Amino acid sequence: MRKPFTRENLAARQRRDAMARPRPTVRDLQADGRFEVAESCVPRAAAGERDVTLVLARPAGIAGPLPLLYYLHGGGMIMGNAWSVLPRLLREWALPLGLAVVSVEYPLAPRARYPQPLEACYAGLAYVAEQAAGLGIDADRVVVGGKSAGGGLAAALALLGRDRGGPVPIGQLLLSPMLDDRADSYSSRQMAGVDTWDRTSNATAWQAVLGDRYGTADVPPYAAPARATDLSGLPPAYIEVGSAETFRDECVAYADAIWRAGGQAELHVRTGACHGFDTFAPGATVSRDAHHARSRWLRRVLGRPEGDDGPAGHTCSHK
Questions:
Q1: In what helix (H) or strand (E) does residue 269 lie, and over which residues does it extend?
Q2: Is the pTM of this model over 0.85?
Q3: Which of 15, 116, 128, 152 has the fewest Cβ atoms within 10 angstroms?
Q4: Residue 141 Cα distances to 41, 70, 132, 265, angstroms
């Protein structure tokens, strides 16, 4: 296990991550002409709000509007950037599925507390929906997705779009999503000191995001989607989590709450997998199975022809 994040080491860990994490340039991402890549700045109207940078990418030479994966990177809302996740997204989904990807550079905590990261993501989604024709995007086929903190933000975007009457995606791809600030599940206690993202790191990140709200009843569902009491009317969800990770029980509970509300959720619990398993061991069987299952779900929700996406893996699903 990696050393956990604490309030005392957070600033130093953030500086180290910012220096070490890859940040490919637009030219790097273009991959010798295989992809069209551009950065776009979304202006914010409210005083004091920073503009939002979006990185837009698509396979080169494909005419017509493409379906879109609007992706939010992981990192506990305290680390990460929009560029580092793109090479894998382009290789694994944009090319084989013929879709566009937008990766969002949202502000990080604790410099930006809730609701700033979420509102930045929402502003970017609204911009993409409004400018879809000019961006070559099919506004009727947008999936929001992300891993870890990004998965939690994607779930929150689905809730926010429903309640504001704003852009409504056709699906939400939630990979080990960070959903619950309360950390009162059995898996949170069971994996304390064991998982790659454990109870201590999780608490540190939530404290950074919520500030004085942390540990109180004054945490809205848009900050921590597991607190939502109404999960009706949401787009179909793909929810994946490892059986040996901190977020296991909150993810299973979230899928169950969607089902109880009459919605669609496809739940995959990966046997023996820790948080970030496919990043640490991309060639492992469990990682390959996870990729195939995610790709099959994306094909279905986007109406893409079925391809050979390999074995189903170990899943627990309900539709």
A1: strand 265-270
A2: yes
A3: 15
A4: 22, 10, 11, 18
